[in-house]
UniProtKB/TrEMBL annotation:
This is Suppression of tumorigenicity 7. One of its GO terms (cellular component) is membrane. It is a multi-pass membrane protein. The keyword Cell wall biogenesis/degradation does not apply. Residues 74-94 are annotated as: Disordered. It comes from the Eukaryota. It comes from Mastacembelus armatus. Belongs to the ST7 family. It is found in: Membrane. The chain crosses the membrane at residues 27-50, 419-440. Residues 75-85 have a biased composition (Low complexity). Coiled coil: none annotated. The keyword Magnesium does not apply. Keywords: Membrane, Transmembrane, Transmembrane helix.
Length: 484
């Protein structure tokens, strides 16, 4: 077997040597030029795919198709996503809906009409589509024709197709989710959206009462009642936000209080954060403190709104008379120390917020989804609460003097993304092969010598093994094998 192997290696080595000796510099120019062209096309496609979808095409194909073939396990599978003892990984958080989320049909559309640019990323809109399917659909939708149409509408990517499907559903019956879609995506003003949400409320209350009577008749009716509850809460919250945006703040506060009293367990919409912002607009600081006392609890999840509103109330008590020079001479009073500690706690939770409140970084239209303790949450908070900090005399001055002394953690920065490995790899490969093609074209003889020397070095281990085999095998056996 060793003799046959050595003979095969000798034949291969001889064939390779003959092939290399027959190559001309033109071949090397064509080889490197073609490699550069192909890698350049791959680089352009990878960059376009990354800009549009936020991920690498090669990486996505590898994870989705090649890993299962090789026996790998998807890291996003349920078996791997659960941590021991039910503890969630604190370093990986799911994006949450912005509490004071703007309208997908009014403000972003107006921004697009004025600037000609899209205000929301593809990733953000995809998360919104998932939220709509979670809140507004259930397994029994196929039993009602209008709901079946809306189930397909929420999955549709084309906005005009979704709007057409909503009108088609309304031709069959009064469908609450169809009114919601039209209010979100077709209405051009807040007043028009409010009118559609009131129609949605009338239809949603009827569905909620019917499903409430049947919820104990089986799992199918229970799922339908859960869906109708989500729809009703969503509509009432949107109506409250309409009132807030139209200047009817007291009416909005009453609607939010009634909604929290009627559905105290539904905290997914973070209605208390909308209530805090509305109470701050009314400058009703006593009620703000009462809401904070209920939700600023160690057992409940924190947010930038809760932490910084608590800091604002503490700063309000001392900020109008605060002076850094006087404080350095006499020391901080008890009230000032409490305000500084509250600011430090808020900055420890989200250190990105002060730069936006102090206008050291420019504000942009907030995304529809935020990451807790990240830059996106800071943008959303400052966008809606900067006016409240400016209204309290000296609050921003106190924040400016104290926030930089906080030792804070490292958090993600939105929307900064790292380039995928395959984009960097294809860029390097394209540049390297293009340089080789240029050098081979300019110095064909010299590059030919370098290419042959490189290939000879590459095959040097094989030649070394061949020489060792020749020295070990008997010369007579080797002579007979070469004759064969």
């Amino acid at each position: 077997v060793a003799a046959l192997t050595s003979l095969f290696s000798f034949c291969v080595s001889s064939s390779v040597s003959m092939f290399l000796n027959t190559l001309t510099p033109k071949f090397y120019v064509a080889l490197t030029g073609t490699s550069s062209l192909i890698s350049g096309l791959i680089l352009i496609f990878e960059w376009w795919y990354f800009r549009k979808y936020g991920t690498s095409f090669i990486e996505q194909v590898s994870v989705s198709h090649l890993r299962p073939l090789l026996g790998g396990v998807d890291s996003s599978s349920p078996s791997n996503s659960n941590t021991s003892n039910g503890e969630a990984d604190s370093n990986r958080q799911s994006p949450l809906l912005t509490p004071a989320v703007h309208w997908t049909g009014q403000e972003p559309n107006q921004y697009t009409w004025v600037t000609g640019r899209e205000p929301l990323t593809y990733y953000d809109m995809n998360l919104s589509a998932q939220d709509h399917q979670t809140f507004f659909t259930c397994d029994s939708d196929h039993l009602r024709p209008a709901d079946a149409i809306m189930q397909k509408a929420w999955r549709e990517r084309n906005p005009q197709a979704r709007i057409s499907a909503a009108h088609e559903a309304l031709e069959l019956e009064d469908c609450a989710t169809a009114y919601i879609l039209l209010a979100e995506e077709e209405a051009t003003t807040i007043m028009e959206a409010e009118r559609l949400f009131k129609q949605a409320l009338k239809a949603g209350e009827g569905c909620y009462r019917r499903s409430q009577q049947l919820q104990h008749h089986g799992t199918q009716y229970e799922a339908q009642h859960r869906r109708d509850t989500n729809v009703l809460v969503y509509i009432k919250r949107r109506l409250a936000m309409c009132s807030r945006k139209l200047g009817r703040t007291r009416e909005a506060v009453k609607m939010m209080r009634d909604l929290m009293k009627e559905f105290p367990l539904l905290s997914m919409f973070n209605i208390h954060e909308n209530l805090l912002e509305s109470l701050l607009e009314l400058q009703n600081y006593a009620d703000v403190q009462a809401v904070l006392a209920k939700y600023d609890d160690i057992s409940l999840p924190k947010s930038a709104t809760i932490c910084y509103t608590a800091a604002l109330l503490k700063a309000r008590a001392v900020s109008d008379k605060f002076s850094p020079e006087a404080a350095s001479r006499r020391g901080l009073s008890t009230a000032e120390m409490n305000a500084v500690e509250a600011i430090h706690r808020a900055v420890e939770f989200n250190p990105h917020v002060p730069k936006y409140l102090l206008e050291m970084k420019s504000l942009i239209l907030p995304p529809e989804h935020i990451l807790k303790r990240g830059d996106s949450e800071a943008i959303a908070y400052a966008f809606f609460h900067l006016q409240h900090w400016k209204r309290v005399e000296g609050a921003l001055n106190l924040l400016h003097c104290t926030w930089e002394g906080t030792v804070f953690h490292e958090v993600s920065v939105y929307p900064k993304k790292e380039l995928p490995f395959f984009i960097l790899f294809t860029a390097g490969l394209c540049s390297f092969t293009a340089m080789l093609a240029l050098l081979t074209h300019q110095f064909p003889e010299l590059m030919g010598v370098f290419a042959k020397a490189f290939l000879s070095t590459l095959f040097a281990p094989l030649n070394f093994i061949m020489e060792k085999v020749e020295s070990i095998l008997p010369s007579s056996l080797w002579h007979q094998l070469t004759r064969i």
